[in-house]
Amino acid sequence: MNSRSEERTDEIVSHMIQYLESVLEKPHSIFGGLPICPFAKRARLQNKILYQVLPLRAVELAFNAELMYIIEEFYTKDCHEVMLVISPDVAALSVNQVAQLVANLNERLAPLKLVVFGGHPADDFNVQGVRTRQEPYINLTVQPIKGLRVASRQLKETNYYQNWSLENLQHVGFENRD
Known about the structure:
The protein is an alpha+beta fold. It has helices spanning 3-24, 40-45, 65-77, 95-109, 145-156, 166-171; strands at residues 49-53, 82-87, 114-119, 126-127, 130-131, 138-144. Helices cover 42% and strands 16% of the residues.
């Protein structure tokens, strides 16, 4: 990678970190006074997030060898809790194409017990009007299912989900509120 592309990569990662700090890590009344992403700040401060900048394109929705390589590397090294794959071209994929990519990856990664979530600047998913997935870039969050289940159980013991509709809960994988 040349110094120009390294600067661009650093700029993109920095922009995403600013978004984490200014939006996802801020407490919000809709989420019971917790941040939109209650575990992001700790993971960021403890350097448990692996940031990867990788252009994603519609022609690669079925298979992207480079993406699979970095996911495998994340999985085998096991030194980060979360990997955030950031695609710098916000027009490369539609919200529906990101959803399709996420579905394809979740099917492919199920044997590894990894789960993928997608973000898109145009994603309209919201909880009581608070949009939770409109990051500045198209992105994929990859993490072990085990850690996600622990976090979800912890959040169920709080008021975090108090304003979520049944549709919101189903959208993120909860079958019911119990």
